[in-house]
Amino acid sequence: MRIDILTVLPELLESPFNTSIVQRAKQKHIVEIHLHNIRDYSSDKHKRVDDYAFGGGAGMVLQIEPIHKCLEKLMSERNYDEILYMTPDGEQFKQTEANRLSLLENIIIICGHYKGIDHRIREQFVSKEISIGDFVITGGELAAAVVTDAVVRLLPGAMSDIASALSDSFQDNLLAPPVYTRPEVYNGWAVPEILLSGNTKEIEKWQLEQSLQRTQRLRPDLLD
């Protein structure tokens, strides 16, 4: 898989992509992640990429020209399955979408900044708009990092134990059951006996019951 990310702050994404599972996936050549500084495509001598919005209003808007030039270059080199735009007014990102994106080959992610990007980019190029929640952060970079991490960890070979990813919360529209490890008793707090029984069938039954109970209590909307 190849992921190209358009941003005005590439340095903000360097650390998340050079640690943990994402880093190992890159080292194994399971995924390529390329950061593109939108400023490199600006025709302004000061590399400015923002301007005031037509019609007035507070805040600056990322200009159409540098984003278009970057997209044009990338799209001339390969075909892209999706061009995503990170925005608070997009569709809320869920595990099912991470699963779908993990099956694709080439993805572009555009990171908004300031008051967003010139809407013509959204109209002409963006195939899907994604939000990580009903709140606003400084730019789309952290949101892009969240989406990238959620997708990359699902790629074959990215995790040493793929069963771990398949048992995560939301994979079956349920929250994951509680998990415990050694010691069996700590400060008088004991691990549930069923988990020490070695009875796989009963353990799986208990885990499902716990998942259902936790989902009903914490996220009943998932059961609707």
3D architecture notes:
The chain starts with a strand and ends in a 6-residue tail after the last helix. The protein is an alpha/beta fold and 224 residues long. The strands form 3 sheets. The protein has a 5-stranded parallel beta sheet. A two-stranded antiparallel ribbon has the order 3-4. It has a two-stranded antiparallel ribbon with strand order 8-9. The protein has helices spanning 11-14, 20-27, 64-77, 95-101, 119-124, 141-152, 162-166, 200-218, and strands spanning 2-7, 32-37, 50-52, 60-62, 82-92, 106-111, 128-131, 185-186, 189-190. The chain has 8 helices and 9 strands. The longest helix has 19 residues, at 200-218.
Please name the defining characteristics of this protein.
5-stranded parallel sheet; two-stranded antiparallel ribbon; Trp Operon Repressor, Chain A; 9 strands; 19% strand; Alpha/beta knot; 224 residues; 8 helices; elongated; alpha/beta
CATH fold-level label of the largest domain: Alpha/beta knot
| Computed CA radius of gyration, to the nearest angstrom | 21 Å
Unreliable stretches? none
In the CATH hierarchy, what is the class of the largest domain? Alpha Beta
- Tell me, rounded to a whole number, the average pLDDT: 94
Per the principal axes of the C-alpha atoms, what is the gross shape? elongated
What is the multimeric organization of the chains shown? Answer: single chain
Q: What is the name of the CATH architecture of the largest domain?
A: 3-Layer(aba) Sandwich
Main beta sheet: strand number and arrangement?
A: 5 strands, parallel
Question: How do the SSEs run, as a string of H and E?
Answer: EHHEEEHEHEHEHHEEH
Distance between the termini: 34 Å
Roughly what fraction of the amino acids lie in strands? 15-25%
What class would the helix/strand composition place it in? alpha/beta
Helix fraction bin? 25-40%
Q: Give the total of beta strands.
A: 9
